[in-house]
User: Which sequence fits this backbone?
């Protein structure tokens, strides 16, 4: 499949490393002979507009502390908190969870899970100096035997968000095609996983508009080819809309056989020419 996006962007590669869990770093305190307690834990998820805190707190005062930190460190962000009191909790539980929440305000987006044995944080940071200070504070608050595991990718503030989105589309589309039933605009089942990925990326990149262009090989009447190519592009657009992408962000075009990228003289080349292209436009 062809796509009108830049295939080699260093900043976007960092984002890919994060989503693929490639980058990691660990720091530990002296371990103790104890097993993780699956009965309690606290998870925190933050993005640009939402902060979600779920799990267990040690007291009503602990919950109030988390709410206060959320209000002070995440102004204008929607807070969703669903916590329960659990007793007894490890000594220092309030401090370590609040310190972790403080630190997550220094990320662009992140997720954390805290239990008696470890704190795991994965995310994207744009201010490495502030993040480094936050990590130092977490380390100082770690409970005895607790491990801090980081999977955090630094992204320069100057990096355009559009570049990050471009790389995600590029990787999703690399060497993959949206396939249809023969002489039909009906999607094959094996095309749906790719389109579902496109939906996820388009959801995470709300500013991007997508032009979907269908192409055919040169077999048959060109007028018929043009109509078929447009019908296939419309099928893709319809699928994306049905899964939540706003119609105003999508355009369907048909190019017929006018834009071959391989020879139409053999079956292999014709198969390559029967394709869907995605072109991204940013404001």
Assistant:
């Amino acid at each position: 499949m062809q796509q009108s996006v830049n295939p080699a962007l260093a900043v976007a590669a960092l984002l890919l490393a994060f989503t693929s869990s490639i980058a990691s770093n660990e720091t530990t305190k002296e371990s103790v002979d104890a097993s993780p307690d699956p009965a309690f834990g606290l998870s925190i998820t933050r993005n640009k507009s939402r902060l979600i805190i779920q799990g267990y707190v040690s007291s009503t005062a602990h919950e109030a502390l988390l709410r206060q930190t959320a209000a002070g460190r995440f102004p204008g962000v929607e807070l969703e908190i669903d916590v329960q009191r659990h007793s007894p909790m490890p000594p220092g539980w309030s401090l370590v969870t609040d310190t972790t929440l403080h630190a997550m305000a220094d990320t662009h987006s992140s997720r954390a899970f805290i239990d008696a044995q470890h704190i795991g944080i994965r995310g994207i940071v744009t201010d490495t100096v502030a993040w480094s200070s936050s990590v130092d504070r977490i380390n100082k608050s770690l409970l005895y035997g607790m491990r801090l595991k980081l999977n955090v990718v630094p992204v320069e503030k100057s990096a355009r968000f559009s570049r990050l989105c471009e790389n995600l589309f590029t990787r999703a589309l690399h060497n993959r095609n949206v396939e249809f039933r023969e002489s039909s605009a009906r999607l094959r089942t094996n095309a749906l996983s790719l389109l579902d990925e496109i939906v996820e990326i388009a959801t995470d990149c709300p500013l991007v508009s997508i032009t979907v262009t269908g192409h055919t090989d040169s077999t048959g009447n060109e007028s018929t080819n043009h109509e078929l190519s447009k019908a296939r592009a419309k099928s893709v657009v319809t699928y994306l809309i049905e899964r939540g992408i706003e119609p105003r962000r999508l355009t369907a075009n048909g190019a017929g056989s006018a834009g071959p990228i391989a020879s139409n003289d053999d079956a292999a080349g014709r198969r390559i020419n029967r394709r869907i292209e995605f072109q991204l436009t940013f404001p």
Q: What stands out?
A: The helical segments are 10-19, 60-73, 93-104, 128-141, 161-173, 192-204, 222-242, 267-273. Residues 1-38 have pLDDT under 50 and may be disordered. The domain at 21-154 is CATH 3.40.1520.20 (hypothetical protein tt1634). The chain has eight helices and eleven strands.
